[in-house]
Design goal:
By secondary structure, this protein is an alpha/beta fold. It folds into 2 domains: 12-85, 434 Repressor (Amino-terminal Domain) (Orthogonal Bundle), CATH 1.10.260; 92-119 and 147-275, Endonuclease, Chain A (2-Layer Sandwich), CATH 3.30.870.10. The chain contains 12 helices and 6 strands. It has helices spanning 12-26, 31-38, 42-49, 57-67, 76-85, 92-99, 120-132, 138-154, 170-173, 178-193, 243-259, 263-275, and strands at residues 104-109, 162-168, 198-203, 217-221, 227-232, 237-240. It has a 6-stranded mixed sheet, sandwiched between helices. Helix 2 (31-38) crosses helix 3.
Amino acid sequence: MNRKELDPDSSPNAAYGARLRSLRDSRGWTQEDLATLMEYSSVHISAVETGRKSPTLRFSRSADEAFGLTDTTDSFERQYRKINLGALLEGFPEYVKYEGRAVEIRLYEIGIIPGLLQTPDYARVLADSAVRRGAITPEQADERVSFLAKRQAALVRPHPPMVFVTMDESCIRRTVGGAVVMDTQLARLVEFAQLPNTLLQVAPYDIGERRTFDLPVNLLTLPDRSVICYAESQAHGNLDREPTSVVPMLTAYHQLQAESLSQAASVAMIEQVRKGTL
């Protein structure tokens, strides 16, 4: 029988499929054998092995059970998650590793609520919108929402970091998901501002040219007091640890905070937006 030659370097899905085939061959199993163990059709197994079908989380977990790889560093689930996190911008997965142990987090966002403050419904609307645009797959959308929930949960710990959030006014003005979703999201911001380890500020439109950033920026202070910066454009993300470029970003953040509304005034604006009085 003719077998399609695979190039594992051609794509993440091809690497996944080539590894699946290699492990199957090493055990002397046919596609039918593996299909029986995984409770999938042999046609489905073939499609994944040749890269014609993308693996899913359920498929990956089933493969791990068949090969005895569940909860190991070599699991197919782990490989699947790496593929799907590829839908995130370059540098962001690495940034998140630092975020989970930061002692101070400083965020600036334009147009949408920062991820760490998003409600599940708000996050789901954004992910589903990306699916409709063809930017990500439905499976990647599920992974994106799940990934965000894990980021948020990682910050709930005995000694949580200080979290400074400065949002452009557009974040609270732009309706995402309709009135109900947006009202719940704005209520979440008010709750966030009441926490003892947070500071929430809105950078109003009228600061004009005094707004120091034109793109979203994340700044992390680590336990050793070093600072790293992650900044995004529409298509690229960049993680920077070099003090000569990170320190000016920190200075610009402080300058932005000085121009922004106080937390009390920011919360008042958010409440007014909720009531539709502005």
